[in-house]
Amino acid sequence: MAEPVDGWSAGRSAYVIAPFVLGLLLLVTHLQATGLNDGLPWRATSPDSLASVQLLSATLPRFCVAILAGALLGLSATLLQQGLRNPLAEPGTTGLLSASRLCVAGSLVWFPALSGSLALPVLAGTILALVIVIGLSMRQAMSPLFLVLNGLVLALLCDAVTSVLILTRYEDLADLLLWQAGSLVQNNWHVTRLLLAGLVLLAFIIVVLRKPLSMLDLEDTVSGSLGLSPKMVRLLAVGLAAVATALVTAHIGLLAFVGLAGATLAKLLGARRFLHRAALSSVLSAGLLLVTDQVLQRGEGIMAIPAGTVCALFAAPLLLFLLHSGRTRTSPGTRFELKWRPQRFTGRALLSALVLLLVIVTCLALFLGRSDSSFVWASFDNFPELLPWRLPRVVAALGAGSMIALSGFLMQRLTGNSLASPEMIGVSSGATLVMLPVIFFLPPLSREQTMLVAAVGALIFLIIALRLARRSHYAPERLLITGLAITALSGSLLSTVIYFGDIRLTRLLGWLSGSTYSVTGFDASVAVLVLAITLAVLPFLRRWLEILPIGESVSVALGVEIKIARFWIILLVALQTGVATVLIGPVTFVGLVVPHLVRLCGLRRPMVQAAGCALGGAALMVAADWTGRMIAFPWDVPAGLIACAFGALAFGVVVSRRSQ
């Protein structure tokens, strides 16, 4: 048998051909079932017949748009993964989709005259995101790590603002819910021609520039010594991906996970070189989107659901099957390390400052409130009456913030990936998936019953994730992709629910935003107990946390039992994430950004970093909870949304000061 070239074997060609064969078969059966085959040119009695018009102006353009849009998104994801050197990179990573979504929401609320065409707000959002991310990254010489982090901070901040608009102006954003669903319905060939021109041009540029783009696989110092400017090529890759994403998003809407699924499947099927990955990811993304849309057309007689909302329902199971079938292998992602300058302050001084900050924000949250006209300090007389109301929220926010930040620290130490966050295990997504049918099909539950249901969902999906990852000895890259697939599955179902615009969705949105509004004294006690257990266990993990980031081969040589170490770290992350999610809902930003903020401040050793993450996460969530109570009194703004704004501001200040 001939050796496979570039990790590819002929037997895997079926994975590439099958989606298109299935899509074509579904199209043929659809034409026969609906009688549209009578509109084919060689069968039509008249070119103006209803069957001919519907076939040539709606069905066939939709078929072509699915292929072209999927191919563009696949190329976009591959370009971003190549430019950012991260296997989890996609258009959402750089803030492109979130900024476009925010601009669309803003235009619908404040400029309703633009609601006839959303292409302009989408393009404006894409350009704005690109300018902000690249502008912030220029000081760091377009470092892949800072491109990723700046894009993520921008994305989470835009999503937080959009969530506030949805919560407050839900009735004005019906068009946003329809647009972000990602419908492929067409009534002419205009969009098809635009996407075809964009795909041909992008493919031509990639082929012409394949050598400099391929050299981004090398370290910047190596590629620079060969005469390449990594900064300019990285800028080109991100720019091309942004253009491709904007072209699809402006004319179709949000098609989440399509490009990332195609790019990941291309690697799993053996493509290693950049050009091979680009070609295969575009083909696979096109096939996934085509099959998804064709299947949905079969059910349009009962219920019309856009392809963008449910594409992950088809792509995620396929991704999980290939990932854990034993027939594929993943290549380890690039490990990133922040380059520290000599710090001006010792670790003890920085930790002392964080302790002081936590004490200040805790005192503010306990003693400073607000009336209809002004801020009010609690007196010694009325403080005992206020304490039962304020103390549980403060303690729960403190405990949840610490646990999520520590979970993010552990995930990033375990995987060596800057995009790793506690949600990557799939625990939060499991809780969300279980909460969906509870909210829509059961009568309103008490808080205790809701927490129990969310805990059961988190536990079920933790068992699933651990079971899937066991075969690969809990390899970090497989764990991340598994969690990402579960998260995409949850997001797909949530997008489907949002598409129907049910008012009951606001109950779920408040929980997803990270709210402490309903926290009780018992909840606060649980948060403190789990946090205390975590802090007591962490010293016993010290050696693992010091050695694992070096790499698997070195860790094994130093006597670390890789499988055991990974299992217990994952279990600790899952425990903290599950408890925090059940108490206040998912708080993505804290677990993702706080560990980076702590490292940027100069805390280097594992235990010192862990202490900094615990204090920083607690201070951030307490401050966010207090601000949410004050900023729109007497209404509460969810603490998770405020934490995004505070965290983004802190990240920008720290990065700016470190780059000077």
From TrEMBL:
Location in or out of the cell: Cell membrane
Annotated Pfam families: FecCD
Keyword Cell membrane assigned: yes
Membrane-spanning ranges: 12-33, 53-80, 118-138, 145-170, 190-210, 278-296, 302-324, 345-369, 389-411, 423-443, 449-468, 480-501, 521-541, 637-655
Gene Ontology biological-process annotations: siderophore-iron import into cell
Membrane topology of the entry: Multi-pass membrane protein
Gene Ontology cellular component terms for the protein in this record: plasma membrane
One MF annotation (Gene Ontology) recorded for this entry: transmembrane transporter activity
The entry's keywords: Cell membrane, Membrane, Transmembrane, Transmembrane helix, Transport
Domain of life: Bacteria
InterPro entries membership: ABC_BtuC-like, ABC_transptr_permease_BtuC
Similarity comment: family membership: Belongs to the binding-protein-dependent transport system permease family. FecCD subfamily.
Name of the protein described by the UniProt record: Iron complex transport system permease protein
